[in-house]
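Students often ask why we bother predicting the structure of a whole assembly rather than each chain alone. The short answer is interfaces. A chain on its own may look different once its partners are present, and contacts between molecules only exist in the joint model. In this exercise we take two input lines together and write out one structure for the complete complex. Read the inputs first and try to guess which parts will touch.
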Amino acid sequence: MKSLQRFWHRNSPQLFLGELLEKRWMEPIIPFTLTIAVFLVFASTIPNYLKASSLQELMRNFAEQGMVAVAMAFSILSGGLDLSVGAVFAMANFLAIYLYLILGLPLPVMVVLVILFGAAMGAINGGLIAYGKTRPFLTTLVVLIIVRAAYNKVTIAFTNELASIDLGSGVWDFMGSGKILGIPVNMAALIVLAVSTHFFLTRVKPGVHIMAVGSSRKAARHAGVNVKRVLFSAYVISGSIAALAGIFYAARQNSSGTDTGVGWEINALAAVVLGGISLAGGRGTIARAVMGAAIIFMLISGMVRLGISGNLTTAVIGIILLVAVGFNVKWVKNKGKVLQKVYVTPSWVDFEPPPSVERGSGTPFAENDRLKNAEAIALNKIEGPEDIILDRNDNLYTVNRNGSIIRFLAPDYEVREEFARIGGRPLGLAFDKDQNLLVCIAGMGVYGVKPDRTVFKVTDRTTRTRTRLKDDSRLYLADDLDVAPDGKIYFSEASTRYELADWALDGFEGRGNGRLICHDPTTGVTKTVLKNLAFPNGICLSHDGQSVLWASTWLCQINRYWIAGPKAGTSEVLIDNLPGYCDNINRASDGKYWLAFVGLRTPVYDLAMRNPGFRTRMVKQIPPDEWLCPGINFGCVVKFDDNGVVTESLWDPGGQSHPTITSIREHKGYLYIGGLENNRIGRIRLEGADPSWEAHKSYWGGA
Amino acid sequence: MTGNSGARGLKLTQTTAVLAMCAVLIVVFAIFLKGFLTLGNFFALARNISILGILALGMAVVVIGRGLDLSQVASFAASTAIAVILMNSGYTTPVALLIGFVMAILIGVLNGFLISVIEMPPLLTTLASSLAVLGIVRTAAVQHYVVYLSKGHDDFLRLGGNIWGGVPISLLIFIATAVIVHLFLSRTVTGRFVYAHGDNPDAARLTGLPTRPLTMIEYALCAAIGYVGGVVMVAQTALMHLQVAESTLIFDVIMVVVLGGVSLVGGRGSVMSVIAGTLLIGVLLNGMTIMDMDVQTQNIVKGVVLLVAIVLDSRLHPRDEETSKQGD
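Now the answer. The structure tokens for the assembled complex follow.
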């Protein structure tokens, strides 16, 4: 029963749901499902709906509406609205017939002129909106009224000519009634238009600028985008596409009726909104506009074929629009909240009571005051030295919160200099054979700094887990690293689900979200070695170079992964049930290892870890500053040997000067202490330690 | 709008500018159009514009509260159509009118609810709700657009007639509505709240104004006043033609409101602005009708005037484009 529960919590469907909601392609899932559903409903209620000729007829009638929806989508994605598309479409339809069939202009000339007309109408809209700073809705509405009135005038004026037109050439007929591979020409044109406009909006600079302006005008302006010109261009494109639709419609109908294009702007607007394109601009794709148009079109045409009155159809469209817009507004507003509530999925962690840490209890963990009088180096000159390392010349390197590597020069460490600036949040440090300083950077990956201070990238991606929805090929939270004798770099990625700032949330999950990754500099290949590790933190090569020791913070374990010898490739738990949350591991001079405890376990938190439901409710229901978090206001460092026996501990009770210790380094008889949130680096003299031992020699030999 | 009416110490506001322009138009029409400056034409003009004026008063309440109600015409068309049907089927006139009134208010409250609680953009909401309301009413009650008022409602029809030798009662209703709306907007707490709401909705909410109920009140008032206009329309013509909802009447209403100086940014303008806008449009329409322009040409002229008004409005009352939302 217990294992079943544990299995459930480890593989909760909520996990899947949370990562599903994060996916960008999830946004149009509702219109997509609706499109399929509407199609299936009509396919099953209308006889012969699925016959090829019937489908072709549907596509032929749909194409122009799809184009008008694409035109509308352009204006909405730019953060505006173009209600004049229906009227421009109608006018273009008339112009196409007039110029080509009545005036007899050559077809290409007519096409160019009509599209120019659409562009000109767009230029009026865009000019007023972008440069005259008028409101898109009213402006385009008035242009709609004017163009519509003009259309009605000209169609009345040319009634006789329109009634007695000669039919056009073969190309014209082909545009109207031809097929390409069984697909009507206008539908093929819509497909080409949709693909090319999608490409334009996502891959080409002016198109991307339209999306940028739609998303945030201010940000776009600050990024140097010419907002006015971009807005102008969006309306010009919108008008041109509407005009193009008018040409195809003219070729198909060869007539220009009083109701041509009436209400198309409303249908297009409904389509775009239904497709899930946000009215706030900048969010959505062309595909969604076409999907929305397909839904509206299928609904209207299907209801007509079912013999439902036009009045009811109007009502249905209105109600669908209301529901869709309302849902869209609420979804956009609350999606983040939903995701936040669903995303954190705590698992079941069953702790044994830990060894006592009480002063005088006799365990190696018993509290003492050995760190209390640590000498402070770089006091207030450093922010958050998560890891520290010393080079052959005794210079001290550490990481700073602002993304730089800071060096304090030997012998007194008074002189501070910025060794390199990389960005991100640098965490674990290690030297390789050539004295390159390698550093894990949260949010970026693994980088290196050569002795001459040039920064180079080691790796920022690994193999992707194919069975997971979330793309985990990028390194989210590289934490600590070490270098094997053969030069391979082993590093931990603490979590693939949370950023560094949300480490506590990963702790609430207590799940194996992290991994151990190996990068081979000779081949440049990065490979995930172990997956599903619970916050793998410190990494250290064993003294014999045969195995990698890694610490699991949330499970309070030290593990050993064999990289050489008979057990190569296998993994084992070295120490279990430690009384604190493990952080970095580093070599000690006597053949043992130093381990930093970032925090201490408490009975309450252990209890909480046994109760996933409690933690779920906590995250959902109370604000973050009231969450029950691991106790991190302690300073404690322990030492263990290759057999997994802890031999001693050093304490700063209450964490007066060294709370949240994340790293310790022994160097020439001294122990250096760093912490994630500290404002100093501590140093104490180690009694009886080898005063000539330094890590670099231990790894790479040499004098 | 370059008229220098500051000569007599009047401040040049949009309202005075519109009034001045109106005066200029009247003078021009009086000189060039035969039959413009007659008492008969004046009453005809008044008769024609009073409905537009009443509707614009309702719209002004919403616009001052930084909203826009595109469903106003659809909602009064639907609710008066229902009232007429009820009157035809034997309900007494007051009861039938009251039911229609309640229906109009409900539509307004629904709009306000969707806009303030669901937080949908006003333009789309009212656009969609007008489709929904019209579609439902036509499906359920009115199959063929027109509802005729049956004979025997002469008392009611008197509302659309004249008294005192030619003064249209609709004009009196317009004046009465204007006075009431003026008193509401300038003398009542709720009225002042409408201004505060439109001036800065966020600040209004933070100061503790009940902005959600307030929005519902605004849209309900718009629909209710619109319903009054609809009743006058029925009284004048003895029928309700639902196609009025598909005409450009709603844009005429917005044009009147915006022209007079009730800016779309909200919190500006007054009943006086609406009256000024109504006069200008009324004179313009009357002049164009006398000139025998066809409807399409009238629409084009109106459209151009509205475009000018919108550009002027955005010049005179610039809005913060960086934070402006879709559907403005």
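Check your guess against this: Residues 12-340 of chain A form a domain with the ABC transporter involved in vitamin B12 uptake, BtuC fold (CATH 1.10.3470).
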